[in-house]
Every structure is written in structure tokens, then in C-alpha cells.
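Good morning,

Attaching, inline, the C-alpha cells for the sequence recovery test we're adding to the shared suite. The designed sequence is right after.
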């Protein structure tokens, strides 16, 4: 994704498509900071099971980021055939 500078509440508003081969698959999202002069650091991640998604029914939900003390990620997901 693009880098969102100078904010603690970034909004990406980006769209992605990914093939899914099994309803047992999971989507893993890792959020990183951006360091200009050193290595980027992971800020947390989200491991989202897709088995609960219904075809062509959008899910619009906030998810708590894991492996970090605070942080939420707002996702809109639609499973397509």
C-alpha cells in the first residue's frame, strides 16, 4: 500500500483481490510503520478467518490488531465466486 505520512489515524482506501482456494484459508494483514533512515517496524497484525464470510454479502467491521497494545483496523470485505 502507499505510505500515509504524519498521522496516527491513516486511511488507505485501497482495493485488493486475492484468490482463495479453501474456506479454511485465512487473510493475514500486517501493519508496518515507515522509517526513513532505518528498518520499518511491524506495528501489529490481523489474522482473519474467511470461513464466516458469505458470498456477495459485504462485511464492514472493525478488527482489533493483534500483537500490539492498542490499534484497530476497519475492513470492508466481500467474498466473490
Amino acid at each position: 500500500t502507499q505510505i500515509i505520512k504524519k498521522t496516527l489515524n491513516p486511511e488507505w482506501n485501497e482495493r485488493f483481490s486475492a484468490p482463495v482456494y479453501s474456506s479454511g484459508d485465512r487473510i493475514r494483514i500486517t501493519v508496518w510503520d515507515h522509517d526513513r533512515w532505518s528498518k520499518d517496524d511491524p506495528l501489529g497484525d490481523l489474522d482473519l478467518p474467511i470461513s464466516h464470510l458469505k458470498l456477495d454479502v459485504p462485511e464492514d467491521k472493525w478488527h482489533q490488531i493483534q500483537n500490539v497494545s492498542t490499534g484497530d483496523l476497519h475492513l470492508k470485505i466481500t467474498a466473490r465466486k
